[in-house]
Amino acid sequence: MDLATYSHDLWLSGRGHAFFGTLMRLPNVRWLHMFAAGMDSPVFAELRNRGIRLTNSPGATARPIAHSVMMHVIALCRNARRFADFQHRHEWARTDIRNEDLEGRTMGIVGLGHIGAEVARLAPHFGMRVIGMRRQPRGDEPCETWPVTRLAELLATVDDLVLTAPLTDDTRGMVGAAELAMLRPGAHLVNVGRGELVDEAALADALARGHLGGAALDVFVTEPLPADSPLWDLPNVIITPHAAAGTQLGADRAAEMFTRNLAAFVMGGAMPTELP
Question: What is the tens place of the pLDDT at every residue in 217-233?
Answer without folding.
Answer: 999 999 999 999 999 99
